[in-house]
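User: Let's play a game. I give you a shape written as tokens, and you guess the letters that built it. Ready? Here's round one.
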């Protein structure tokens, strides 16, 4: 069997992966809002400090893109 076939068979469904990723980002944002530093968040979540930075950056980027979607004016006809 080809390795690609095995990955496809055992791969996590995309929706599950996205939900898990969102939960991780939300948890990091929640801990940061409580005043924890990156190092403390990393210890709490049992991840490297760099991962905390990436999670917070992604959350900020996604929040910004959502705000942009809501603030765009409809195109004039």
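Assistant: Ready! My guess for every position:
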């Amino acid at each position: 069997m080809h390795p690609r076939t095995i990955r496809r068979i055992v791969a996590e469904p995309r929706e599950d992966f996205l939900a898990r990723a969102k939960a991780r980002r939300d948890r990091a944002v929640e801990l940061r809002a409580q005043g924890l530093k990156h190092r403390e968040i990393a210890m709490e979540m049992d991840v490297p400090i760099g991962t905390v930075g990436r999670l917070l950056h992604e959350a900020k980027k996604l929040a910004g893109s959502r705000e942009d979607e809501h603030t765009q004016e409809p195109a004039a006809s």
